[in-house]
Fold:
Amino acid sequence: MNQVLFVKANCRSLDQSVNVKLYHAFLDTYRKANPSDRVIELDLYQEELPYYNDVMLNGMAKRRKGSELSLAEKEAVGRVMRILDPFVAADKIVFAFPMWNLTVPAALHTYIDYVSQPGIAYRYTPEGPVGMLGSKKAALLNARGGVYSSGPRRSRKWP
Structure:
């Protein structure tokens, strides 16, 4: 049995978004093909994670060093760990998101800030950063609308 973390970063409804239809189709198919796997769904728009901030940075750094935390830092570290723990525990991670304005939604970027923790997700070495989470498998489910090329479907000519 695998634990699958399904991270959804889209505030749109099923009738408004091709992405959301893709997510539902994937989950339905995955669950049928892998009935013993445990799927944990994390909707980043329901979570409303605050942006990663100075209190979180300081608190996580103190936690790594084993230093005493202020009350605000304890609360901030607790918030980060509540998001980080399922990421670390998952065998497989699925990121489901649209492309908005040539990038990922801010909620997904914020989530990445939470889970990208030195000493947990990666460590620094003389050769550069090295991952610490083993052989997790990840999948990206992404669809987009709009025109993102200079090909025949371009919407306007740029100088």
Q: What stands out?
A: The chain is about 40% helix and 20% strand.
